[in-house]
Specification:
The chain is of the alpha+beta class and 252 residues long. It folds into 2 domains: 172 residues, no CATH class; 54 residues, no CATH class. The protein is built from 3 helices and 17 strands. A hairpin with a 4-residue loop joins strand 13 and strand 14. The structure holds zinc ion (ZN). The site of zinc ion has 8 residues, from helix 1.
Length: 252
Amino acid sequence: MTAIPDYISPITGYRVWQWHRAGLRSLNGETWHHGEPLEARCRSSERLHWRRHRANPRPHDAPHLHCTCGIYASKSVEHLRRPGYQRSLIYGQVLLWGTIVEHQRGWRSQYAYPQSFLLPPEVLPVRLMEIETLLKSLISYDRDIFILHHGAMCPLWKNDSGLAADGLDYLTDRASKWYIQPNQRSAIKQGDRIAVAGEGMAVVDDIDGTYVRVKLGNKTMLRIARKQVSWKKENLRWETEARAYDEGDGNR
Ligand SMILES: [Zn+2]
C-alpha cells in the first residue's frame, strides 16, 4: 500500500463519457456534476463488507491497489478508439489527482474533472439549433470543446470567448451538404444507426417482422417494435421515442 503516490498537481488522461442533455455520465452511469470534481467510491468493497458483517458499509478508500475501483482514464486517446465504441460516446481530456494507481495503459484516480471535450461528428445532430441545445450541457463544465475530424481537433467552443468560427464553418458546411441530399428512407436495414430513447445510439443488428434488434455501444442487445421506429431526416438517423426492451438477462 505504500506504493501509491498522492498527486497534488493533476495529471492529464483521456476518457469517454455518455453525453445526455443533462450532462455527462461514466459508462457505469455515474453522473459528473458541473463545477465539482468526481470522487471515486468503491462499490464492490461496500457490497463485500455488507455481506460479511451485515453492518454499515465500510468500504476501503478508492482507488485501492488490489481492487478495480477508481475513476478510469487512458494514457492516449488511441487506446479508447475501439470499433463501434465511438458511436454514442464523446471523448475528452480529464484531470486526475489525489490517490492515483498507474497501469500500463492508464490510471485509476481518486478525483477527476473534465479538461476538454472532443466530439466525433457522429454524436452531433445536423441541425444547428439542436446542436446548441445539446452543447449547453457541455458548456456548463467551463471547458473548451473540439470536433474530432479526421484525427484533427477543430475548435467549436472556447470557454473564454464562446463559439469558434472554425467549428461553426464545419457544422454549417455539413448541414448544407445534408440538405441537398435525398432525404427519404423507406426501409430500415441492418447496419443502420438508430437513436434509442433513454439509451443512446445503437446499430441495427437484425430485423424480424415486427421487431428490430439493435446493439448498443456497450454490446447490450435491445428489442424494439418496428412501428415505434421512425426516420428523422434532420438527424440523419432512425429514432425511437418509446423505451426499448432488454434482449438479454438484464446483465448490464
Ligand atoms: Zn475497491
